[in-house]
Amino acid sequence: MQTQVKKLDFTGQNIYTGIDVHKKSWQVSVFSEALFHKTFNQPPKPEVLHGYLTKHFPNGTYHSVYEAGFCGFWIHDKLQSLGINNIVVNPADVPTTDKEKKRKTDKVDSNKLARQLRNGDLDAIYTHKRSMLEDRSLLRMRRTLVKDLTRNKNRVKSDLHFFGIEIPEQFTKNPSYWSKRFINWLEELEFQQWTGTFSLRILMSQVKMLREQLLEVNRKVRTLSREDYYQKRVALLGSIFGVGLITSMTILTEIDDIHRFANLEKLRSYVGLTPTSHSSGDKNLHGEMIHRGNKFLKSAIFESAWIAARLDPVLHMDYVNFCKRMKPNKAIVRIACKLLDRVHYVLKNEVPYKSGIP
Known about the structure:
The longest helix has 33 residues, at 130-162.
């Protein structure tokens, strides 16, 4: 007599899970290799999902996917540590039908992710290690401080202009540079009413605080650049005209591993230096740069490109030639591409750049 087996066993079977992540809850859809299982809501904890899968699909091979966003990669790391083969995808790269666009719900999104994961239609993005993400946060914090400092400086000048207070001529030769004498003049400035003076004091206290914080962050960036992982790479990037310490550290923390890019074109696409194109028949049209890309890295490359166009003889000659047939803002895009080519070459081959002679 054949005995009845009541114990579930999914050994050798793949279970696919699509997760629509939110701050307070996750919408989860589960597919087996042949059938749709269930869509449910759960707390935002990887352990809860792991417990559900092991309970209903014991010994199965678990796969999951979620879209990159505000939650970062900690969910990915935790799911991987629990034995779930997770990937993170770019939301813009998830194939979506017109019906799914017009009827967008959390249930539809999670169902779509699980189904396409099972079909093999999703490409995973590169996930940075926790240590690299924390190093990157230091450089991004510096960028935030610079923007906040500039914003508060402009508020001070706008306040002076609104009340018709002229800045002495000795401080207007270099408007972007705030010397100690200029700051002392602002702190001693008196308005007609105490209220105006108090408002200016508040703005100046914010400026001084941001300057001190920025100075401290710069020190920390310099300290980080001396660590073994960065020191050699910073020296290599420093051999390129226009690439200083801050730009080097921004490039290294944003790119992480240069070898993850199969070729230069993929690196350009990641930065956002790839033009839009539309080809049909004999027509082949190229437009502006694509809007997607790493905005922090793109900004650093462009800032360095303007400097390199002045200091590097070859790039200066190229920039002048480009400007003869296009506007300067389009010419600098070509220079940025050439500069990125040099960054790719230096990091890929681990050799310093040798400047050519025009």
